[in-house]
Amino acid sequence: MFICVSTFYKVRINLLYKTIFFNVCDSAQLGDPCNIKSTQLALEGRGNRAPTNQDGARKLGTEMSQEREGKYGRELDVAVQAIQLACVLSQRVQERLLDNEEVAGSKNDESLVTVADWGVQAVVTWVLSQAFNEEEIPMVAEEDTRDLRGMEGMAMLRKVVHAVNECLMESSVMGIVPPRQPLGTIDVLKAINRGTTKGGPVGRHWVLDPIDGTLGFVRGDQYAIALAMVENGEVVLGVLGCPNLPLRSEWLNYHHRYYRVASKLFPPSPGVWHKGCVMSAQRAGQAWMQPMIFDGTTFRQSVAPQLVSVSGIVDPAQARFCEPVEKSNSSHSFTAGLADTLGLRKQPLRVYSMAKYAAVARGDAEIFMKFARAGYKEKIWDHAAGVLIVQEAGGVVTDAGGRPLDFSKGRRLEGLDRGIIACSGKKLHSKIIEAVDASWNSSTL
Ligand SMILES: Nc1ncnc2c1ncn2[C@@H]1O[C@H](COP(=O)(O)O)[C@@H](OP(=O)(O)O)[C@H]1O
Ligand SMILES: [Mg+2]
Q1: Which of 14, 122, 143, 397 is 20 to 30 A from 49 in CA distance terms?
Q2: Candidate ranges 11-25, 257-271, 309-323; pick with highest mean pLDDT
Q3: Ligand 1 pocket test: which of 118, 321, 382 has the largest number of ligand atoms within 8 Å of its C-beta?
Q4: Which CDD domains does this UniProt record tie to the protein (predicted)?
Q5: How far is the CA of 9 from the centre of ligand 1 (A)?
Q6: In a domain, 36, yes or no
Q7: pLDDT tens-digit readout, 67-105
């Protein structure tokens, strides 16, 4: 009893300390919290207003879409717009879930699902179809409409259609022309169903995880919206929307709930970019980061994306590794053994979703490792965008045998050797591969 009470107070005091710390940091110059090359971080005096007219709103999107060059520049622009818009939907749904105005459902396979999983898939597919004038955008995506059928699915479907239309009506803020009239139920179902493409080694297709880390999403923690384009089996473009990713990496140690409490108690100065980003990259290009246009309550003006790069740390004692929160998704005991062998002294950062790839790409952590149980087949939408962003930020991503991940085999990452290792540099990476080889046979995996 005494232990429980004292632990409770310790947590409270810790939280209070963090809260004060957060407030002090935020009211100060933001500096360079995450290895961003350009330093235009604070957005004070730059909007923070709800758009009042469509012309003004369109201008925001136009500025945003003038940034990219390169072979996939146009596709990247559209993909970033689609993700910015999808993040409006997801942030609203997450707030409703946390305020108990909405509840998560479960799919036939008993995995969690929310209005946002289907809603984001519909919104992103709709935006891509409009931009590229293609009725049938080839899309490999996580969701389908099976669980929206029949009487059981009807209530959820109604909510999805509502969320999609609510979101699309605001699309002009992102420079996207909204639909002339609200989408009907059939339009929404069709948009979601486009995600059933098989993928494979030939031609172009998009790859989407509408809400990656659904468990984190439902718990009010980290999640990501991940969109990639695969051309002839290679990922050539990737965009990751991470609405809750704090700009200060030390906050990744805590559940986002604390961050929400802290920022409610001591709201950061208006317009200051303190959390949420969209990261993007194209092959043979660079990796970029920009703030969310919608920060959960207000829209702000878009700013030019900034280059990001991986950390330069090579000493394992200084390096930080991240891994899934759920030990059922990746063996914590195996990575703890590896950390010991490698001399990684820092506590692992346990983060939901592909936000872990974002953390490595922008230098918050040096390593991301995932070792799923034997027999689990990784899906391409859980990795495509994140892998490219880490690579273009200067990092290395392979399976545990040191081979590149193969996105050419359809919806799953076939032939994956043991696990996935994303790393800021080759030296750390090869040390990890050696350590995996040395300890694999004695592991229970
Ligand atoms: N048993 C398992 N082993 C490994 N990964 C799993 C898993 N079950 C689900 N996943 C994947 O892990 C993702 C979450 O990653 P993380 O654990 O890093 O937050 C899930 O994405 P979704 O939430 O999109 O379904 C899902 O694809
Ligand atoms: Mg996922």
Answers
A1: 122
A2: 309-323
A3: 382
A4: PAP_phosphatase
A5: 33
A6: no
A7: 578 899 999 999 999 999 999 999 999 999 999 999 999
Distance 171 CA to ligand 2 centre (A): 25
Top mutation candidate among 110, 117, 212 for ligand 1, by most atoms within 8 Å of CB: 212
pLDDT-derived band at 22, boundaries 50, 70, 90: very low
> Same structural domain for residues 288 and 418?
no
Contact 81, 62 (CB under 8 A): no
Q: Please report the sign of the dihedral spanned by the C-alpha atoms of residue 338, residue 340, residue 343, residue 348.
A: positive
Tally the domains of the chain: 2
Distances (CA, A) of 313 to 38, 134, 365, 399: 20, 45, 9, 21
Instruction: State yes or no: ipTM above 0.95.
Output: yes
Residues serving a catalytic function are 117, 214
Q: Domain holding 398: CATH number?
A: 3.40.190.80
How far away, in angstroms, is 213 Cα from ligand 1 center?
7
Nearest CA to ligand 1 atom 1: 329
Ligand that comes closest to the CA of residue 377 = 1
The closest-lying atom of ligand 1 relative to the alpha carbon of residue 373 is 3
Q: Is the pTM of this model over 0.90?
A: no
Domain hosting 411: range is: 321-440
DSSP state of 36: B
Counted residue by residue, the chain has a size of 445
